[in-house]
């Protein structure tokens, strides 16, 4: 009998992350059991600690940009690779306890609060916006608040329903093309599962000497000279000193394996350190 694989996600039940993980898990060779954690740092830690075999964490949203906690944790981790990327459409609902009259406090994860900024300014300009660890946690808090306090959550329909909330307004994100990229992360030391498709992208993280003129240009030139297409660049403070930065490069994997390998090796020589987080397939969800 094989032991069931485990996948960590941001909880409690009913988050966008859980919905995305349910979708991805159906495509995997072995469907994992989902385990929920209270914040993204704890989710990634659970893979590093071997409590779970993998995790699914958000990395970037089409309206709001990078999810810094994921990038910072990936930069510091020595032990993880990206097994797949999932592009997940995000639908935000405004939900409250039945009978809620005047909404004056709105809870959610920081990303949906930003994704719905236009709607909130138009309909609830006076409401206090309260950022919590996840959308499902927001629904839980609203369910526990005394009646008549005017609390609402921006959450998934399932997150609200699991907590007895009803929909006040549907699809309140400012742009209907709102999507989030998630990474499925696994431990390098664990046996990898069969990839869900051919490799499309590669993630490389490195620290470049911020004091040297043209240092970033020199690195980008290594990709450009070899015709390697960079699909994303992101930077985060290295957290060592002011002005030191870590760069995240998404590179396209095509029929360019040798060129890609050479470019990454050349960039490694120009970096303080470089980590190859692997080449991975991209799943575009159509739930
Ligand atoms: O809070 C959630 O539901 C999450 O899973 C985090 C999140 C928030 C917004 C977009 C994608 C993931």
UniProtKB/TrEMBL annotation:
<dbReference type="InterPro" id="IPR045865">
    <property type="entry name" value="ACT-like_dom_sf"/>
</dbReference>
<dbReference type="GO" id="GO:0004664">
    <property type="term" value="F:prephenate dehydratase activity"/>
</dbReference>
<dbReference type="GO" id="GO:0005737">
    <property type="term" value="C:cytoplasm"/>
</dbReference>
<dbReference type="InterPro" id="IPR002912">
    <property type="entry name" value="ACT_dom"/>
</dbReference>
<dbReference type="Pfam" id="PF01842">
    <property type="entry name" value="ACT"/>
</dbReference>
<dbReference type="InterPro" id="IPR001086">
    <property type="entry name" value="Preph_deHydtase"/>
</dbReference>
<feature type="domain" description="ACT">
    <location>
        <begin position="204"/>
        <end position="279"/>
    </location>
</feature>
<keyword id="KW-0057">Aromatic amino acid biosynthesis</keyword>
<dbReference type="InterPro" id="IPR008242">
    <property type="entry name" value="Chor_mutase/pphenate_deHydtase"/>
</dbReference>
<feature type="domain" description="Prephenate dehydratase">
    <location>
        <begin position="6"/>
        <end position="187"/>
    </location>
</feature>
<dbReference type="InterPro" id="IPR018528">
    <property type="entry name" value="Preph_deHydtase_CS"/>
</dbReference>
<dbReference type="Pfam" id="PF00800">
    <property type="entry name" value="PDT"/>
</dbReference>
<dbReference type="GO" id="GO:0009094">
    <property type="term" value="P:L-phenylalanine biosynthetic process"/>
</dbReference>
<keyword id="KW-0028">Amino-acid biosynthesis</keyword>
<protein>
    <recommendedName>
        <fullName>Prephenate dehydratase</fullName>
        <ecNumber>4.2.1.51</ecNumber>
    </recommendedName>
</protein>
<feature type="site" description="Essential for prephenate dehydratase activity">
    <location>
        <position position="180"/>
    </location>
</feature>
<keyword id="KW-0584">Phenylalanine biosynthesis</keyword>
<keyword id="KW-0456">Lyase</keyword>
<comment type="pathway">
    <text>Amino-acid biosynthesis; L-phenylalanine biosynthesis; phenylpyruvate from prephenate: step 1/1.</text>
</comment>
């Amino acid at each position: 009998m094989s032991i069931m694989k485990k996948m960590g996600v941001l909880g409690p039940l009913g988050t966008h992350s859980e919905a995305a993980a349910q979708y991805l898990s159906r495509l995997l060779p072995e469907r994992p059991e989902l385990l929920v954690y209270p914040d993204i740092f704890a989710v990634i830690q659970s893979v590093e600690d071997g409590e779970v075999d993998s995790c699914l964490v958000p990395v970037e949203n089409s309206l709001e940009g990078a999810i810094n906690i994921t990038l910072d944790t990936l930069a510091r981790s020595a032990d993880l690779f990206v097994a797949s990327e999932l592009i997940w459409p995000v639908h935000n609902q405004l939900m409250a306890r039945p009978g809620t009259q005047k909404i004056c406090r709105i809870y959610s994860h920081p990303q949906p609060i930003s994704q719905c900024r236009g709607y909130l300014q138009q309909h609830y300009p006076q409401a206090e916006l309260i950022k919590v660890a996840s959308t499902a946690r927001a629904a839980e808090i609203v369910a526990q608040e005394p009646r008549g306090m005017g609390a609402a959550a921006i959450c998934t329909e399932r997150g609200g329903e699991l907590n007895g909330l009803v929909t006040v307004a549907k699809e309140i994100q400012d742009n209907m093309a709102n999507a989030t990229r998630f990474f499925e992360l696994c431990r390098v030391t664990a046996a990898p599962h069969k990839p869900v498709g051919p490799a499309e992208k590669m993630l490389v993280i490195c620290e470049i000497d911020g004091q040297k003129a043209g240092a970033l240009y020199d690195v980008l030139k290594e990709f450009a000279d070899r015709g390697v297409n960079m699909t994303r660049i992101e930077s985060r403070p290295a957290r060592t000193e002011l002005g030191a930065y870590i760069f995240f490069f998404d590179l396209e994997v095509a029929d360019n394996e040798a060129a890609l390998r050479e470019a990454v090796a050349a960039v490694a020589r120009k970096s303080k350190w470089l980590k190859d987080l692997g080449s991975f397939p991209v799943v575009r969800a159509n739930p």
